[in-house]
Amino acid sequence: MATTPYFGIPYYAALDTAGEGLWGGTDDNLHLTWEKAIAFAQLTGEFPVEEREYRLITKTRWPLDIQSLTLETDAGTLTAAVKIDGVAVTGLSAVSASTTETTTSASALRSVPEGANVTLAISGITGAAWLRYNLYANRTGTGTA
Predict the structure, then answer these.
(1) Does one domain contain both 31 and 45?
(2) What is the CATH number of the domain that holds 113?
(3) Which helix or strand (DSSP H or E) is residue 33 part of?
(4) What is the DSSP track for 66-118?
(5) pLDDT at residue 40 in the model
(6) Among 18-32, 38-52, 62-76, where is mean pLDDT lowest?
(7) Range of the domain at 33
(8) What is the rounded average pLDDT for all residues in the chain?
(9) What is the mean pLDDT of residues 71-85?
């Protein structure tokens, strides 16, 4: 099977000489190896807000350590909380967001085990219609694919 190094890690070519094709086992190997190269996760997005919980990560494939949350609204204010399987991350349990971009660091209860869900709970909306966010986390283990 043809391999190509990327960041010092060999990965399988998408269409190799064995002819496994685009959706065969070759792609699975490529996917597994790319995951090994990822050292951090940065989730960035913008969405219209309402008071509810938004799922940011569904059943993470490897353990993570949440580092920080950056928030900014289009107008007004709101409060946000990052949760791991329903448990608030210390330091990110009641983050105020306004029209000024603000970054807040996680201080404890920030380890995300493999297979966990990470959510962003929004409450106390006053005049805000949109929220821009950036959640930054470090990968802490190999996990499974």
Answers:
(1) no
(2) 2.60.120
(3) helix 25-37
(4) EEEEEEEESSSEEEEEEEETTEEPBTSSSEEE-SS-EEEE--BS-EE-TT--E
(5) 66
(6) 18-32
(7) 3-37
(8) 78
(9) 96
